Amino acid sequence: MGVHEVGPGCVMRSGPTRVRGNAAAGGDRPSWRTRDVTTRGDARLFVVTRRLASGVGVLLSLSLALIACVIACGGGMAEAPWASRGDARNTRAGTLAPADDPSVADETPAGQLCDSTVRLADSLSRPATDGEPLEIRHLPDAPVRLDFLRGQVRGDRDRVDRALRASEDHTRLIDPVWGGVFMGARTSDGSALLVEKRTRQQAAALQAFGAAYVATNDATWLDRVEDVDRYVAAQLESPDGRFYAMQRATAPALPPGMDALAYYQLPDAERRRYGVPPVDHALDAELNGLMIEAYADLARETGDARFLAKARRAADSWLRTSLLPSGAVRQANASSVPSTDPRMIGIQAHDGMHLASQARFGLGLVALYRASLDPRYLAAARRLVAATRHALEPNGGGFYASEDDGVTDAARPKPIGANAAMARLMTWVGFIDHDEALLADAEHTLRRVASPAALRGRGPEPVAEAALVWELLSVGPVEISPVGEAGDPALAHLVDAARTVRDPLRVIHADGDSRYPQQDRAAVFVCSRVACSSPLFTADDMVRRVADFAHAPADTPCGG
Questions:
Q1: Regarding beta strands 90-92 and 531-533, do their DSSP bridges make them parallel or antiparallel, or are they unpaired?
Q2: Which residue, 438, 507, 381, 549, is CA-closest to 42?
Q3: pLDDT at residue 16, rounded to an integer
Q4: Which residues does residue 493 pair with via DSSP β-bridges, in sequence order?
Q5: What is the rounded distance in angstroms from the CA atom of residue 281 to the CA atom of residue 203?
Q6: What angle do helix axes 489-499 and 539-549 make, rounded to 10 degrees?
Q7: Average model confidence (pLDDT) across the chain
Q8: CA–CA dist 521, 538 (Å, integer)
Q9: How confident is the model at residue 352, as a pLDDT?
Q10: pLDDT in tens, 109-144
Q11: Closest among 314, 296, 292, 312 to 304, alpha carbons compared
Q12: Among 515, 549, 499, 554, which Cα is nearest to 369's?
């Protein structure tokens, strides 16, 4: 794909602009959609596309054909042409599936599906009043990520403020003595703490605090990151850098009349008199993926090499010890100590593949590649995606929960949250590799498994996870592509400057990008979903152009 100059400091991507959805609604199957000229900063974005001129005629012809069919069938509806082929759209005895059946291959425009999913996620994110009893036992992860992303990319300050309030809620759960966040609370003001400490909640807190720092530049959020990190280092890190599953609430020698909540209100020395609550030393790929992603994102957001080192160490240990020949990762490993854990559920290392483990660990690998630019992690993520698709993705789309559920294919579950996480992984790999087919398959996964009908009645996490993927597909990445001669110090300087960009959609093509022409000196191109900059030669110009492209144009789908 080439580029050409279209305005001051801006070039347009040549080739069609991808607009997902069916042709009649302005999608890319097969028509193109006209976009108006849009101005963002000083970059004039000209995207000119075409419509199918015969669209109206085609619709008229189809209408006449349908009338003729009804007459020929004696007033009855003719059998759908796919009814005899076992297509997923055919549910029973040759009848069409109802419109709200999640098995229907939804042809609704992607922007409309995104809007519906985001609205549903918003309806599940109502903030609680201080002291109000809560039904949930832990604070959200995906809903906070969604609000930070949409708030930053679309300039929605209300969303950012909501995400910051949720992040403040995480701080109420920080153990002031040993650090780390407790599992949750039964009231929104934290007055009824659930004092178990789970690795999943540590990862969610790290994600929230890092995103809050990017949104505010307030170093207080980094202090809260340190509060979680010091606990993880003391209790949840294995000798080889991987992360254990959780720490129990109850100390081993509590006196009569003292419960776990009263224990955690004691200072350090008095707590230790009654012993330290035991740790569940299980090593789980899903939880390790969440922690690797959290530390890698922190490294990208803060530039702190300590966080990158932690993410690298955990990923390298897992890939060294638990990588299957297919490229997938083993779901769980027994560490050297779990047989003594009083709460330990029997963990057996086996090679069966589970979707949640593959998706979350793959997201950790992609986040680590984005932070480190080490191609080993991207290669591992590609292999994992291929292996998971081979084992768990049927021809009709969507992913099974595990490799062997012990039931027929028709009854095998396709969990929404894990499918959305897998779609998010495919989306990031598609962005990095410019793989349009993989991006289309990610969208297809959402359409098959996370349709609005399928999401009704679900909790906030899977709904927000699906909305997060729709948002990514709608706005696309902010791509930074340095070009120049290998070994040129000026090129290395541009790459190093690109690493400092904290935009949540940043993708750096550090190994060059054949789409852009070589210049007479090291240069960099910055691209959005619809346009690219002219060649830039200084880090300052690059940073300014990223700022121009960091906010989605007003006509971006799913604007709400």
A1: unpaired
A2: 549
A3: 37
A4: none
A5: 17
A6: 40
A7: 81
A8: 11
A9: 81
A10: 999 999 999 999 999 876 555 555 554 456 789 999
A11: 296
A12: 499
From 268, 171, 272, select the one nearest 222 (Cα to Cα).
171
What is the band of 210 on the pLDDT scale with cuts at 50, 70, 90? very high
227-243 in b/e form (b: 16+ CB < 10 A) is: bbbebbeebbbbeebbb
> What are 543's two structure tokens?
């940073």
- Please return the burial class of 176, using the count of CB atoms within 10 Å of its CB with bins 0-12, 13-18 and 19+: exposed
| Orientation of helix 436-449 relative to helix 460-475, angle to 10° | 150
The pLDDT tens digits for 434-488 are: 999 999 999 999 999 999 899 999 999 999 999 999 999 999 999 999 999 989 9
Helix (H) / strand (E) element for 363: namely helix 355-372
Residue type, 552: A
The label of the residue with tokens 């060649």 reads 535
- Tokens of residue 107, six digits: 């042809």
The residue written with tokens 């990031």 in the block is: 428
At residue 17, φ and ψ (nearest 5 deg) are -85, 125
Cβ contacts of 272 within 8 Å, gap of 6 or more: none
CA distances from 527 to 21, 374, 472, 473, 515 (A): 23, 22, 15, 15, 11
Task: Give the pairing of strands 279-284 and 244-247.
Answer: antiparallel
SS3 readout for 210-224? HHHHHHHCCCHHHHH
**For 102-106, 146-150, 444-448, 536-540, which range has the lowest pLDDT when averaged over its residues?**
102-106
Report which of 203, 202, 199, 182 is spatially closest to residue 137, judged by C-alpha positions.
182
SS3 119: helix
Sheet holding 506-508, edge to edge: 3-7, 10-13, 531-533, 523-527, 478-483, 506-508
pLDDT attached to residue 337 = 60
Q: Which residue has the tokens 């597909």?
A: 473
Alpha-carbon span 164 to 170, nearest angstrom:
10
Collect contacts of 13-18 with beta carbons under 8 A, ≥24 apart: 13/527, 13/530, 13/531, 13/532, 16/49, 17/47, 17/49, 17/530, 18/436, 18/439
Which amino acid appears at position 504 of this protein?
P
Question: Distance between the two ends of the chain, CA-based, in angstroms?
Answer: 31
d(CA 502, CA 364): 17
pLDDT, one tens digit per residue, over 11-57 is 555 443 333 333 333 333 332 222 232 333 333 332 333 233 334 34
Alpha-carbon distance 3 to 358, whole Å? 36
Q: Report angle CA 183, 187, 190 to the nearest 5 degrees.
A: 60
Does 30 sit behind a cis peptide bond, omega within 30 degrees of 0 on the bond before it? yes
* Range list of β-strands (E), 359-510: 478-483, 506-508
For 124, the token pair is 């599940």
In whole angstroms, give the CA distance from residue 79 to residue 67: 14
Cα–Cα distance measured from residue 315 to residue 366, given in angstroms and rounded to the nearest whole number: 11
